[in-house]
Amino acid sequence: AMNRTNLGDLALKKGDPVAAQRYAEAALNVFQDTNHLEGQAITTANLGEAAAARGDSARARALFEKALALM
Question: Which run of H or of E encompasses 57?
């Protein structure tokens, strides 16, 4: 799952928030299935970054707040 998180980070840095979201969602599913809270928090924050990059500030804020609550 962490590899998918890292691939999402790379996609975001390369300017592809859609791919970043796809990788982060896949990673988040694994982290949720295994109850890995730190992974869920990191990946949810990454989803927030992808939403911000797409210009969806409301979604980004909601995801960042959720990530903070997981910590």
Answer: helix 57-70
